[in-house]
Amino acid sequence: DILKMLGGTVALSVENAKFSRELKDAYEEVAGLNRAKDKAINHLSHELKTPVAVALGTLKILARRLAEQPDQKWQTTVDMAQRNLNRIVDIQYEVDDIMRGRSKKTGEAFALRFDQCADLVENLIIEEAGDSDLAFKIKKRMNGIFIMEDLVSKNISLESFIRNRLLALKPQFSHRQVGILLNFEPIPDVFAPEEIMRKLFDGLLRNAVENTPDEGAIQIGLNTQGAGVSLKIQDYGVGIPVEAQKRIFEGFFPTRDTMLYSSKKPFDFNAGGKGADLLRMKIFSEQYHFKIDMTSSRCRYIPKESDVCPGRISLCPHCRQNDDCLQSGGTTFSVYFPPAP
Q1: How many Å from the N-terminal Cα to the C-terminal Cα in the chain?
Q2: What 3-state class would DSSP assign to 184?
Q3: Chain CA centroid to CA 107, Å
Q4: Phi, psi dihedral angles at 233 (to 5 degrees)
Q5: Which of 86, 169, 235, 257 is most enclosed, with most CB atoms within 10 A?
Q6: Which stretches does DSSP call E strand in the chain?
Q7: Quick one: pLDDT at residue 70?
Q8: How many CB atoms lie within 10 A of CB 101?
């Protein structure tokens, strides 16, 4: 009996060792694939920069020349091209922020190499054309496309900041009939880079507006939470299916059926999402030590991801009044900022 017990123990140990080795090999394979994926995404992002920048510049020149023509029928086509190129630029900036957060050393090496190239281009223009103003403009343009300056945290009055951002963004969704309700309590300043706060708030507000039908509402709240500050952006829109909620911060995971996407402007209802914005915010939270969470309830009238909201409450066959929609679903993003140092 003792020998049988020892034999069973040895067999179990051998089996566990084999399983552990296979698990380690599988982990290393997945880690390698993940690194390869990151390299591919980073490479594609950088490869997009130059052709997109050239296309945007060419489009602007074309628009200026066409403006001299009496027939303005070209305007709609040029606007559509401009809008879609801007979408590509937005995707590229989001990927840049994501990859920058994952690998700062690579970014620093690229910045050093870029500075050397930019200085060389500037000197060549001055030598060949003798135009220092042109050289400065070209270098500034190159910096704007390729380099994101190091960001410095500072004390920010979040109430004033949000009010100013709403004023700046309002023209972009003035065509939407979505009410913005503010509920601000007295709060201390938060400590973060202003550029990060702008990307964070703008992204959350755009997400809320795009998911809220016309005649709906969005609430923005500020209050103290312990020694820190809580920001909540709550929409009464279509909500996110449970399956999508589990992977919402993983990146490049859209919350809507891709078959339903169309080429819409930012802030349009149901504008197609790229799935990178929330991953970027999650990485920002890790870099700058705030927390971001989400709760959501899918509209009970359109429970499936493929179900379609008409985009206006008065057109919904299930809602007799606005409150029927406001009580049917929605999403809340909560951001917690620790006390400023």
Answers
A1: 67
A2: strand
A3: 19
A4: -120, 110
A5: 235
A6: 154-156, 178-184, 190-192, 216-225, 228-235, 291-297, 330-337
A7: 72
A8: 18
**CA-to-CA distance for 49 and 37, rounded, in angstroms?**
19
13-53 pLDDT per residue, tens: 656 666 677 777 666 666 655 655 565 555 565 566 667 77
Alpha carbons within 13 angstroms on the beta-carbon side of residue 277 total 19
Spatial neighbors of 123 by CB under 8 A, at least 6 apart, are: 135
Model confidence pTM above 0.85: no
Residue type, 129: A
Q: Order the strands of the 228-235 sheet from edge to edge.
A: 178-184, 216-225, 228-235, 330-337, 291-297
Residue 341 tokens read as 């140092």
Distance from C-alpha of 109 to C-alpha of 220, rounded to nearest angstrom: 40
Give the residue from 261, 152, 273 showing the smallest Cα distance to 209: 273
Residue 283's pLDDT is: 79
Rounded percentage of the chain residues whose pLDDT exceeds 90: 38
Helix H, strand E, coil C: the string for 42-78 is HHHHHHHHHHHHHHHHHHHHHHHHHCCCCCCCCHHHH
Q: How far apart are the C-alpha atoms of 175 and 338, rounded to whole Å?
A: 36
As a 3-state breakdown, the chain gives helix, strand, coil percent values, each rounded to 5, of 55, 15, 30
C-alpha count within 13 angstroms, C-beta hemisphere, residue 142? 16
- The CA distances from residue 199 to 93, 205, 256, 261, in Å, are 11, 10, 22, 23
Beta bridge partner(s), residue 293: 334
Confidence check: pLDDT of 321 > 50: yes
At 329, list the tokens.
């679903």
| Domain covering 154-337 in this structure, CATH number | 3.30.565.10
> Which residues touch 326 (CB under 8 Å, ≥6 apart)?
216, 217, 236
Would you say 136 and 144 are in contact if contact means Cβ atoms under 8 Å apart?
no
Span 57-69, average pLDDT: 79
Of 91, 36, 97, the closest CA to residue 282 belongs to 97
Burial tier of 318 (Cβ tally within 10 Å: 0-12, 13-18, 19+):
middle
